[in-house]
Automatic annotation (TrEMBL):
SUPFAM superfamilies tied to this protein: EAL domain-like, Nucleotide cyclase, PYP-like sensor domain (PAS domain)
Domain spans labelled PAC: 240-291
PAS domain sequence ranges: 166-236
Gene3D superfamilies: 3.30.70.270, EAL domain, PAS domain
UniProt lineage: Bacteria, Bacillati, Actinomycetota, Actinomycetes, Micromonosporales
The protein's name: EAL domain-containing protein
CDD domains in the record: EAL, GGDEF, PAS
PANTHER family given in the database record: BIOFILM ARCHITECTURE MAINTENANCE PROTEIN MBAA (PTHR44757:SF2), DIGUANYLATE CYCLASE DGCP (PTHR44757)
Amino acid sequence: MAAVPDPTGVNSGRDPAGVVTGRADAQGYAADWTRVVRRLGFVPLSVAETERLLLAHTLRLAQAVRTEPFSAHPAEEVGRALVEAQITEPQALEWTLRALGATFGRQVLGDGDRPADLADRVAAMQGGLAAGFARALRDRTFSQQERIARSAWQARDEVEQALRASEARFRAVFTGAAIGIGIAGVDGRIIDVNQAFADMLGYSIEELREINVAALFHADDAAGMWELYQEMIEGKHDAARVEKRYHRKDGTVVWTDLAVSLIRHEGRPRFTVAMIEDITERYELQQRLRFQALHDPLTGLPNRTLFFETLGRVLDTAGVGQQVGVCFLDLDGFKAINDSLGHDLGDRLLVMIGRRLAACVADNGHLVARMGGDEFVILVDGGDDTDDPVAVAEAALAAVAAPVHVGEHQLAVSASVGIVQCPASETSASELMKAADTTLYWAKAAGRGRWAVYDPERGARDIARSALVAGLPAALDRGEFVLHYQPIVSLLEGTMLAVEALVRWEHPELGLIGPDRFIGLAEETGLIVRLGEWVLRRACEDAERWWREFPDARLVVSVNLAARQADEPAIVDTVADALQTSGLPAELLQLELTESAVMGSAGEPLRSLHRLAALGVRLAVDDFGTGYSNLAYLRRLPIHCLKLAGPFVEGIRADGTDVAADHRDERIVDALVRLAHALELWVTAEAVETGVQAERLRALRCDTGQGRYFGAPAPADVITARLRGGGVSA
């Protein structure tokens, strides 16, 4: 709010005539006045603004008391000014008048400023201030009342004008609206309709005024619509909106979007107003779009969306013990047909297959859907013999296997089917289809034209396998892998010459897992390269500690090298870096490769083998004798050792169960040892389990043995303890 003007010269401490006014006393009086009026009521000014205003009024009253001839008119103006400043609280006025008579003269006027008739003048000023206050308050009240009355008359005029305008607009809208509008009584009798309503139903306006609303309802929804209408006129609903059909006068049907509102008068239902729009074309379009959304555009079969809707409905409504089955079918080699004969012919083939599948289950009413690509699914709803999913699958395979003539081509087509059947109450749509997909994979893996039935135990194993695959990268990052070492012992002297590094997974939930459960998974996912490098570096570190602590033992550490690792261009640099980082002499590291990896080496892998041998690293062929060995090729490879495959050694058991086979295995081992020695290669026999096997291998001049007879794979500290004991075989 703007600052209050100071025409009295209060800021200078003098009145307009230059006479000292006793400003300090006037300020104290004004401050007391300010505190009282702000405490007793609302004042739309700040504290400072209120105090400046009341100080000005105080000085004006003081000036009026001293002025000759005396007049109480300034006090009246002060009273009016208080009302204008919104200081209208009666208690504030009471305090003002009382203070004016009690303390004003003593506090505000100096001793030399008090006239002889001060008491009379103060009393006159009290009356003048009260009179001015009252007149101003009365004038303000009259003014407000006048404004209220004027506003009321103006509002009434505006309401009447708006009502007339509203009625005119409603009539214009009602008459010229493009949508139908109808008004009916609560008894259903039509009171009025517009031309659009009449045209939509094929009646004249006069004919419709003679008709009850119920007569227009479609036979299929009349009961429900009349019930809704009854609830509305009973006041249970104020509005409703539905899509419904009406009979036209000529008997045809029109689909409409109907919105009905209830009109009340004095709280009682009086009329209903209906607005209807012809949506026949839109409804038919929606039906076509829904069909397209729920059916495969190529084959016309239900698509995966409709299939899952139907499956969900079957599962939700199935009775106790009711079975539900799924046959998940995939064509064998369909990609080859597409690639060789073209996608157009492939599409025509899919159409024919879809028709055959639908026809073969048509009598039983099973749903056939196309899931996408060359995948189809049959929903078998029920549990009796006629609904046996296996029988359905065999019928589907037979239908698919019949020769197919597409254009000028006769095609022989087969399919694989995954079958799942279980109680509907024990599964969900997603679980059922996941199991069906898994089973289809089993059927395809077993060969073409087959079906497979879901096995929960096998499914659990597959899930566990998938969990291991997913957990491999994180396990390597978290350091969950450890190395165990299996001794490789001299068959002649019985001393430990080498150890083979074997990786184990310390799974946080499953415990210690052997390599047979995860090495194949690591090879499939490509993680074998990272894992193999970790094994190599850790084995070199452990071997370097043994070499440093037991230099006379010259213990060799043998590390398996996967085929994918051997194919890596950087394998030589990786091995060299592992040796340099650990400090292990190259001759104390042996790398084992499978026979197929070594014999299939060509180009860069073969050069890598020669470069590894040039580092001084020993190279061994693991599981020798199980592949298709090219002996002439083996002679040119930089190999140092052959490790005989376990099955040959297992045959030399001398337990009398199969003497002929035992002798054959012994002759094979003898031939392989002689061959290796002829090529100046070291020979290690794997899977030595008994002393008899060890003795017979020693007699065949096999160099070293490895197996549980010489020690099971164990942590590095067990090997350390064995070295401290002289490295003698157990």
